[in-house]
Amino acid sequence: MATLRPARLEDCPSIWRVFTRAVRELARSHYTVEELEAWAALRQPESFAAVIGKREFYVAEDAGAIVGYGQLNTATGELEAVYVAPEWANRSLGRRLLEKLEEAAWAAGLKSLHLRASLNAVGFYEHFGYHAERQEMHRLPTGVEFAVVHMTKSLDE
User: Fold this and answer.
1) What's the CA gap between 19 and 1, in Å, rounded?
2) Cα–Cα distance measured from residue 104 to residue 84, given in angstroms and rounded to the nearest whole number
3) Over 70: is that where the pLDDT of 157 sits?
4) In what order do the strands lie in the sheet with 3-6?
5) Over the stretch 125-134, which tens digit does the pLDDT of each residue have?
6) In whole angstroms, what is the distance from residue 96 CA to residue 34 CA?
7) What pLDDT does residue 42 have?
8) Cβ contact 15:45 at 8 Å
9) Residue 153 forms beta bridges with which residues?
10) Considering only CA atoms, which of 45, 56, 42, 74 is closest in space to residue 142?
11) Of the candidates 136, 139, 138, which has an alpha carbon nearest to the alpha carbon of residue 150?
């Protein structure tokens, strides 16, 4: 079973590998190859270093390997990321990361959370009480756009 812990700077390359694999493999049923490749190229290992220590940022580790991560911006109430390695999908790891971030939000005094879910993740978030507000197009710096769903959850529920 994977353990959760705060992310460290030396985790950045492993976090990046989880991110790119999750995007390319878990979202391919809902997005084109062009969208997936633009999304995967959005982050580089050093981009995670810029937010570690500035966000609630946790990794899931199994046998010394990073197999998932989650990131919450307590200043804005945005759940910015929950990603798991493809072989860890549907094994409750995403749930555990989400619960950890919700606990951190509650401890920070937040009353609600919002996020932009990829189409493949909407059902996951709905299962844990998030409500779809609207679908919108997310534009990447490269100009590629892809559909996401804005979702919210009251932490009082």
Assistant:
1) 20
2) 19
3) no
4) 3-6, 56-62, 65-73, 78-84, 112-118, 145-154, 131-139
5) 999 999 999 9
6) 31
7) 87
8) yes
9) 113
10) 42
11) 136
Cα separation, 151 vs 64, whole angstroms = 33
Enumerate residues 6+ apart whose C-beta is below 8 A from 57.
6, 7, 51, 69, 70, 71, 72
- Identify the pLDDT of residue 66: 97
Q: Which of 99, 88, 117 is nearest to 155 (CA)?
A: 99
Q: Token digits for 26?
A: 């878990």
Instruction: Give start and end residues of each alpha helix (H) in 4-152.
Output: 12-21, 33-40, 45-49, 93-107, 122-127
Report the C-alpha gap between 44 and 41 in whole angstroms: 7
pLDDT digits (tens, 9 = 90+) for 37-46: 999 998 889 9
Q: Map out the domains of the chain as residue ranges.
A: 3-110
* Token digits of residue 70: 């989650």
CA nearest neighbour of 72 among 34, 94, 36, 100:
100
Structure tokens at 134: 């609207």
Gap between the Cα atoms of 16 and 145, Å rounded: 21
Q: Which two tokens stand for residue 103?
A: 């606990």
What is 3-110's CATH number?
A: 3.40.630.30
